[in-house]
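haha ok so turns out i had the wrong file open the whole time. this is the CORRECT one, sorry everyone. sequence first:
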Amino acid sequence: MIRKFVNRKSELSFLEERWKSNKFELIVIYGRRRIGKTELIKQFIKDKPNIYFLCDKRGTFDNISRFKKQISKFLQKPIIATNDLEEIFDYLLRETKGKRIVVIFDEFSYLVEKDDSIPSVFQRAVDNLLRNSNMFLILCGSSMSMMEIGVLSGKSPLYGRKTGHIKLEKLPFYSYFEFYPKNKIEKNIEFYAITGGIPFYMEKFSENRSTFENVKKEIASKNGRLFEEIDFLLREEFREPEVYKKIIEAISFGNSRTVNISNYTGISANKLWKYLNSLINLRIVGKDCPITEKKIKTKKTIYFIKDNFFDFYMAFVEPFKSDLMIDELFDFENNFKKNFNQFVGKKFEKLVREELVRIIFRNRFGKFGRWWQKDKEIDVVALNELEKKILFVECKWKNKVHVDDILSKLIEKAKDVRWYNEKREEFFCIFAKSFKRKIEEFKGRKVYCFDLEDLTEIFHYQKERND
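then structure:
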């Protein structure tokens, strides 16, 4: 159980608003495993009459039998004899006599996985019976592909029946201040670098332990609660988990282009894209190109591990798994001490790109991303197409940073960014742990400097805005 339920205000408000409609609602809730879907549902139903049913993979007959037992327990009446789902719903409606209740099928994707007729069964129940009732029906699932294909797609029998849906995403960084109130921002960024805003992983980390001690206890120990997490997730989602893991491993080792991934894995390029698309849909892998590229498909496209936990695990745990199984920690610890700070620096850059620049410059720029060209790279570039304004950002996970040196190099790299070069207005921004000194102008250019103290204030403000 998550120790503290944080930052699902908009999702709860949406559900409460639909509850007040007193009409039939079919709400689909989905998202990657560990994202907090069940906890959201529990928060919503805690003060409402409900039947919560957790589906499993034992097939339709067994699941319907268990569902009937849940109904019997809720009504305090004998178990109904029929196994016809429509008749079961009809019985439930008659026995509740118009009383509004919430009925939840959690891990609904398990039912669809084992029986592809399930969407049709529910479609008939909705069309023939439920749509004229005031039942609040929730179908929740973790298998993204199964929920999107079996429930939400235009080819699904249930298409057009839902009255709303929630795709649950990771928690924003400001949630860490509420989740770990004792932590300073530097430690929260270290936690974020590993847990990536996934509540299940966040819950395993304690603010009373160092980052390394948390990793050692929960991820790198053969008895740790997250030691087998990657393999578990891949088995749950894919029929060929070993193939997907090999692709993830390839990307983790720096093979960022299709041809390199293909060479590493031995999977032909014309077959590889299907695997990559599945990993992209699950937010495990990301696909990127320089922000100034106008073509959707470009030779400059690269792949990277988008999920923080997968990225950390493949870099710091997977290479030493055999040693860790026999409690041999020497190489693991040395690798962590040598490379973790650099890893956090990359995730700090991601945090700046995905959240911070959007918070700080939300009304001035509309497009944010990375830029690179051969051996040159800029951490974040933001564009304002209408006003021809461009922002160049560098992130330094260091203390006492010399702004002048960084800006001189950044200005030189900016010259190679081909985007309205003769017409644009340029701005520059540096994020760091701390600075030797901050400046607001450099060689006639506007400059912004943000250190960890500034970021703490920004995130606390963001938290207050969302409370």
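DSSP finds 20 helices and 13 strands in the chain.
again sry for the mixup
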